[in-house]
Design goal:
Organism: Rotaria sordida
GO molecular function: protein dimerization activity
Number of strands: 11
Protein name: HAT C-terminal dimerisation domain-containing protein
Helix content: 55-70%
Pfam families: Dimer_Tnp_hAT
Shape: extended
Mean pLDDT: 84
InterPro entries: HATC_C_dom, RNaseH-like_sf
Length: 823
Amino acid sequence: MPGNLTKFNTDWLHRVDSNNDSVNIWLKKGSTPTTFKCSLCQTGDLSCGNQGWKAIEQHMNINKHKEILRQWKQNAKFRVANQTRSDPADSFTSTSIGIPILDTNTNKNKPLALDDQVTKAEILWSLKVAQKGLSYNLCNELNELFSSMFPDSSIAGNFSIQADKMSYVVSHGLGPYFKKKLIEDVKKPDKFVLIFDEQTNNQNKKQLDMLLRYWSNEKQCVVNRFYKSIILLGHAYAKTIRDIIIESFATDGLNLNKLLMLGRDNPNINISLENLIDVEIKKQGGCLLTIGSCNIHIIHNAFKNGILSSKCEDIDSVMEKAILYFSITRWVLLGKVIDRILNQWDILCDYFLCFLPEKQPVQIRENKRYESIKLVLSSNFSKVKFNFMLYLCENIFDRFLTFFQREEPLIHLLYCELNDLYQNVLLSFLKSDSVQQKSGQDLLNINFEQSALWIADKEIKIGEQTRKLIRSLNFDEKKSFYRDVRKIYITIANYLKKNLPLNNMLLRDLQVLDYLSRTDRSSGDRIVRVARNIPNLLDDGEIDKLANEWALYSVELVDRSWYIKDEYVDSNGNNQIKYHSIDYYWNNVFSILTMNGISKYPTLTKLIKNVLIITHGNADVERGFSINWNILRENRSSLSESSINGLRLVYDGVKFFGSGSAHKVPITTDIINMVKKSSSNYRESLIAAKLAVAIHKNNENSNKIIQNEKQQHLDEEKVLLDKQKTLAHQMKEAEYLIDEGTNRLEGALKSGVFSEVHAAKLLIAGGREKLTSINEQQQQLTNELDKLRLKRKNAFLHEQSINKKLKPIQQNQHNIMDLIDNI
């Protein structure tokens, strides 16, 4: 039982290992009473709850531990960070913080030279500027400011960074460094997920953002990392985005076959893209996992369709005056906006219905917007509808829409939550016996448009406040209101029925990932079905091992601290439990070792790490849109694509390596060297851009020459074809002479008029002579046409070759021109 687990004993720190070395060199107490850590091996919490000291002995006998300890004893250099690793659900630290990290480069432990200390200071400042979206112009005269502030500091005296330098440090130094670290990390797991979406940025351009979701070996949890942004010229076609993704992966050395799935919303272009990517992966012997589109969007759209079905356009007229911005594409905000309106209802009525007519009658005369607002505020019916919509938001939709915008893995909860939400909608207007005890496909099979299943109007769920206000309506208004409410519920249910993946067996089986599901009788079958559904991950032999490992896991003693983060009593005296994220729980399961010191569940570990990355929605990439607006403000609309990528990569790097704090990001010699090279890298990119433009112009000129040659060839061909037509006409004339001569010769022989024989022979001879000449000319024309068509073919191939060279330049032309403008 969990209550009988062995707790970490501080007396163990005084023991020695088999080599008579004190274990307190590396043994540390874990974050919970029944766990320990190894600072040499950079582990997270390891359980000693089941085996006590034996668990520690098992770890110290692992070959990896022995080798690191041997190097440590030989005076290998270590760098020790000052913080402790937190729950993966919280902000992340830069490394396995609080653990000594082996460093084979002994120079890193030497004091930094002044030049490197100055670069480090410039890096920290650049990280802060990029993270907060500050203007680069803020850096101008910063050198003088710091020198005045810290006159006794040689670092401040040598600090030198202005707007131009800040630009290339971010775009060609820090950005590429964090991109390199990302690629190194994402190559380690078996699978990763690509999440993407596009928006129109402050440059009025389409910006495609791509994120990677994977199990990070460094963090030992699921992470979402910014990958890159692409500025699209005009409308983006599925084939264009496919080419961008494939070329990006090829450039960065990412294996397309390791792509597990695409995280997307539901426009047709994204469905087409998913199919195109799947075709490319199938060429390599794999396939994509497809579980549909973002369910957050589905719930959003269901609510929107329901509201719009009841003629609630009068919302818009008051929204602008609610002192809280509302967008029709962000329905999660609607509840807050309506709540604000209802709280200010009396004030709004006083202002629009009393103050304006009395004090500003001219301004509101024949003003359609004012008349619309007046109509809404003058009607009790409007207030009733507002309260009903607030009820829908707060009691049905907001919880789901808010909960599934979290970054931690939630795929194991998605099916149950979708099922509950759909059931809740149906129970709002249907009889309970038609809905209860049903789930999944059985719920989808309910024909809710049958009036026999409907509850009475007065029983429809509309919320207590709405029910109180409805008393102020007359009979016809009540009848109209209930008709609208039922229509809203039916419209919402219809949309959900068509779009929710409640018949998706994989989503249903993924519930087995929850720690409470491991003891279910069907859990073994479920985990095997999950394994079979993940493309190209486990072979038949591994699936057999998985079944055996799951049987052992299902009876494993699990420490409550692995899934319970905190227990407390709230202000109302109620007991509350705060849970760890599911990847934190599983990472503790992965740390369980056998008596031989090896992983007890290696196959299960491989599967779970690549299943937890399945995305539960597109909130992560859309959250990035807010970051885009922060860094790409209206006064920074001239930023190039490389600058945008640099800023986003730095923002992501500070979050990943520094837990969101720039000063916590480890400043290594690698990042210092990368920043020092940023100036030369920037100049090289400018030279390359100039060269690309020169090549582009040269190829364009060549293309013009080819086009002129093509036109010349067409003109020559037309002349030759006209000559052919003329010769064909002359041939008919020659044939006519021969036919005429032959007829006259036959007539002369029959009539005996031999004087006609000579004339006939002359006609035949002349015709044959002319026909021979025409045939010779035709053969000459045919030869000339063949030569001309061969020239046209060669020109076409040359044109194709030039266009192929121009394609990458054309695709990046806006970036190239941005770079050249900065020269």
